[in-house]
Fold these 2 entries.
Entry 1:
Amino acid sequence: MSVDLSQFHQVFYEESYEGLDAMEQGLLEMDVTAPDDEVINTIFRAAHSIKGGSGTFGFNQVANFTHVIETLLDEVRSGDRGLDQNTMDLLLESVDCMRGMLEELQAGGEPDMTTPDQLRAKFEAILSGESAGDAAGAGDGSAGGAGDGGAGDGADGGGEGGDGVGWLIEFIPEPQMLQTGNEATRMLRQLNEICEGKMAVTAHVDRVPGFHDLNPEHCYLYWHITVNFPLERTAIDEIFEWVVDDAEINISPLGQDVESAAAPSEAQEAQAPSETAQVVDIAQPQVEASAPAEAQAQAAPKKAPQESSSIRVDIDKVDNLINMVGELVITQSMLGELGENFDMAHVQRLQEGLAQLEHNTRELQESVMKIRMMPISFVFSRFPRLVRDTARKLDKQIELRMIGEHTELDKTVMEKLGDPMVHLIRNSMDHGIESPAERVANGKSETGLVELKAYHQSGNIVIEIEDDGAGLNTERILRKAKENGVVPQDANLSQEQIFDLIFQPGFSTADVVSDLSGRGVGMDVVRRNIAALNGSIEVFSEKDKGSRFVIRLPLTLAILDGQLVQVEDQIYIFPLVSIVESIQYKGSKLSNVGGHNDVLLLRDEYVPIVMLNQLFDIASQEKPLDDSIIVVVEADGEKVGVVVDELLGQQQVVIKSLEENYKKVDGISGATILGDGTVALIIDVSGMSKMSANHTPAQSKNVKPHKAA
Amino acid sequence: MAKILAVDDSASMRQMVSFTLKGAGHDVVEASDGVEAYKIAQGTSVDLVLSDVNMPNMNGIELCAKLRTLATYKFTPILMLTTESTGDKKMAGKTAGATGWIVKPFNPDQLLTTIKKVLG
């Protein structure tokens, strides 16, 4: 029977990645001085499973590499070896290394073995350096992946002469042999099979006690077997392999004295030779260990990791879904029956049925959305490692605290959230948290704290990144902004406006550009990425107390909280998050600055005005603008006032891609279908404000704002 | 045809074992750790137990020892799937009442050959 093992590869990759995550997490949690047994066990099990699986599924490079790690972890587990920081670092490196190899294999490539081989050599050096004996003990020889069935490969030299004629076997089980589930009859039958029936068995009953002393669960019989067939000695050893400790087994070539058979029986335990071979194997590459280590910096070109297109869904969610579909079917059949011979008398039942249908549909929609929801720990889980490595690089002491890791959000949002968060956390560690000496001088504890918090708030997910560092230095930010010409020299800004400057493109306060952050290419990108997810980011900071970045995101990208507005006969939708306020056109302070672009004076701020009907070329009837509404929206930190005819309701809309169904349209991010079947376009607020900025004056000269002003 | 309880915390190994055994006409019940396997075993009897050694919650050795305390599992063959072919690990398995072992990595054919030793 042949089984195509490649069908199990996907599962193997997935569980291996999970295992690697668990290893990484365990390693980060581990206190080197007092390792927790349970954590070590978890790490060991992960390595062990990866080794077992990779060997089984034919990834011998991974199996061989993992083997040394497993060996080392096994020694730690059994208390034969302590851990030090160096080993921990190596183990963490090896996690990355295994992940890299697996990703490469999954992408259909062949992993570059340079780094793995170097790491392996280092591990082998550790293993052989301190306790060569232990290494030998754990070197079980199965790493080669040859799949040797484990049977009697140690039986070397025991069989000379025997293969030719046959064997004489004495099989004397211990009385308790049956209690391990072994049965003599099965072994005899198997032996009979391989020697093609050419054997004679004598059962001896002299050990059977009297009836009163008889224990029915004991084996009292023993056998003498003569095999008249040229069998390999190993084939016989294999049959009795599992009972060598539960039975006396003497195997001698036919034609020899039974007495002399004692010697070959030792071969049963001759596992040793194969292990010695393994030791040589392990020790060998150690010689070259130091040389290639230098070349480590030269990293292999990395292939783009395959984005996983499958998600794991909690079985409860699926059950729930099936349950709901069941209800939907019931409602459908009920309505179907009602429709078949409809009569006005049944109107009430029809209404009930429709209400039921609405209820079912809504629940079903919610449940389907939930499938895409995953705990944010998928993003958070990479941060302990990041914080640990960065802190070491910066020579700071930083503790990471994570709260609300089980908060769920849409997978797509999550995938796009990782990079901005990495940036913010790095910033907090690099710029926020002070050096231990500075902290102590300021009366803080040596260890800085970075706190990640995630929670749901009114249909949004809120993520906070807070540090107890120096806080934003407003003076320096302002000075830098003036130097860089981001703001005019005489600008007088509120604290909030100053904080906002860090999100400006090309702005950096770092006096020395470090390799971690401070190249000024970050915060504006962070804000843009978050805005692209229909989210917002705010910063709060207090000098010497710390900073807090608050990110607000919709739970999903597939549904949007929208404000419906009417312009002539068209309905448009603004994302609710982008709306600052809505005011009446009548009575607003409008003025014409610079000839053609009108601005609204909103408190002490000038806000450009966009006429939506002109921007989108909607045929308009001449009518006074007095009844119009100005919707003030904010995008990329800039406010824009959009003139619309009327505000309609607010509702959740399902976003449909315009690009997929039509083509990309400037200023529009998507479309949705309203309850009455009409299509409404969703406005891309930042795209729209850019569009209006480039809008030719010729087109806007029809505007007659002074009528109203 | 036999009823086999396959215990492994690794989903890919479990699938491979299960697929192979089913392909050979056996009936397979799966469990992902010792605790789950023991729970299953209490409710049903099987012809063979194949169990991984290293598992969370309850490892294979503990499972083996616990199964032997059940009347229906007193003589049931229990094979350990192990990468550790060293003597002491095998000994621990034997002491707990394991019938034998299959050393990983093994391929489907090796698995079928090995289980033939204890079935029927």
Entry 2:
Amino acid sequence: MRGFFFHEATDRLMQSYLSPYFLIPVVIVVTVSLLDPFEITCTTGLSGVQSAFLSATFAVCLISAFAGGRFFSVFWGSAWFGSCLLLPIRRASGFWQVLLAQFLFSSSLLVMAWLAILAALAGHPAGNLMPVILVGLASVFWTSGAAALAGLLTTPAAASVFSGIITLYSLIPLVDPNGSIFTSAFRITTAAMPAHTGLGWPDTTAILILAGQGLAFALAAAGLYIAGMRRMTLPGER
Amino acid sequence: MFIREPWREAVSLISASNLKWGKASGPVSFSVAPGRMTVVTGYSGSEGEDLLQVMAGIRKPSAGSIEICGAIPGAFQTPPSALFLSAAPSLDPARPAYRQLLSRLSACGLSRTAVRGELDDWLARSGLEKEARIRSGRLPGWIPRFMTLALPALLSPRVLAVCEPLEGVPLVRIPDVVGILVDARTAGCAVAVLSVNPGELAAEADSIVSIGATG
């Protein structure tokens, strides 16, 4: 079966990692209460629906980072995973299929959150949603890459905190474009998400930068995976 | 009387030459032809697991060479005709064993639907039908390890390497484990058993190789 690790990962995500995503509404409520959505809509020129889409993206990415860091570390560190690498299956698929499963899982939940927003804000002017959707998917990919890297670097709890904090700091401009909570100093996504106080964001460049950074995270994680696999020092082997 | 046994003349499917790995005390050389069973012993601690990883291509030997099915084991995939079973079962303790066994069998090339009946029969013969529905972590450690032996029993690999197959197995169940390995050998598989304490397997083995010796 070609998708062995994909199925194994999907099974575990559905059974053990779905519950954190129930916090999506809570994160959105906290975000909205901390920031003034009306002011943000005015300064950025984004429509209310676009702004809500970005809030949902931020919430899903944040939860995906916290849950994903733990998921990757637990999955790749398990004794059963190490034993499965001895089976006649492609070992590299143990990396990319798991990453793909986590990305698709988070993306599916993000799409559901967007659909809920569309249903709730039916009748409101939405504007062009395509750039917001693309930046959302790029952000989820970014988060999955960062979580995979964290999961390979350290233990489940530490990976969860590490990827969660990196994501919180880097993707906060999605909901706080004016930088009222964190300054942009040292933020990885500064080039993709500058303090956008004018129209036209997100543009193609921003989406490509986010996707590129996500790819860089994923490639770094892939390198670590291959090195760790050859020395059998994946997280659980430590 | 001389009986011609073509399998004895066949090229070895497992061939190790002056192989050293990890902190092993000495080099080991052995070869296993189709339909033969070799026990590798004389090491300590986790060196058997390390040797299994060397055979599977995950770990590089520190000296010497090894060939599986005539090729140096690759780092990215075990040969499809070879099966390596570590001492730790490839089952997730948090999930029921049955579904996992099915997914591992299908990962190794068998259709999930086609193998379901065979797996049911195998579990029934082993008296482990009920246990298969329980989370493998809740079972005594030897049961998930024993269940993993469904893979060679149903896949019929050309090469089988097993690490510590008797570890923790109750006395009454040892003949079953030995029987599975002997059946694999009878089916023409080259079987390598890595065990600190081979016990009853030693009696069934065609050759016993000790680390530091050449066999």
